[in-house]
Amino acid sequence: xxxxxxxxxxxxxxxxxxxxxxxxxxxxxxxxxxxxxxxxxxxxxxxxxxxxxxxxxxxxxxxxxxxxxxxxxxxxxxxxxxxxxxxxxxxxxxxxxxxxxxxxxxxxxxxxxxxxxxxxxxxxxxxxxxxxxxxxxxxxxxxxxxxxxxxxxxxxxxxxxxxxxxxxxxxxxxxxxxxxxxxxxxxxxxxxxxxxxxxxxxxxxxxxxxxxxxxxxxxxxxxxxxxxxxxxxxxxxxxxxxxxxxxxxxxxxxxxxxxx
Length: 260
Fold this sequence. Notes:
Shape: elongated
CATH superfamily of the largest domain: Response regulator
CATH topology of the largest domain: Rossmann fold
CATH class of the largest domain: Alpha Beta
């Protein structure tokens, strides 16, 4: 499988570096370059690439505007965002991007991205996307992918983003205006602006806002400790057995749920 690729970035050194790294990988053929969103659309229409490596902040049209037009026109190409900014990761996955790379791009990280592209392309080809049955299959596949994305959360861990199943989250806390997420396998931060925004992307039957600064997975509560004024402290199932206070407003709901 050869991946016909277009590289889009308004900075020539960044394009040159990406093209150099891609040239070191087997099965990748760079068929075009663009320095802005308008040029990108023209080259994509001409070349019909399998993959577009796309910057986000560019003159003319942003990377997201290009991607949304491609989705609107039902252009079947894979998107990998390459940017110096980490705050757009959630939006990137919402438009079904394969991956989100931060500059400067590491060769190994780019190689991993290309493997993900190959896997998605192979999966789509195996599904058979031709004819009426194929169109229906593609719609069902897109719906399934979007549902899957809602069931996953992107966390920033160090300089990278990792997607985790939402039910792997133990609790979320707002600390100094930073949303800190503790999961079974890792701890990171979220780019959602508020706890309300994050909560709206989670199952309300499982994730409870027990305090204005804390959101918990009710299935990850290890122990319920009685506290002053008939309130409670929740001990969570993380390695530190973190204690989360329950606000007075949420105590009633907790008692009803647990028949306390």
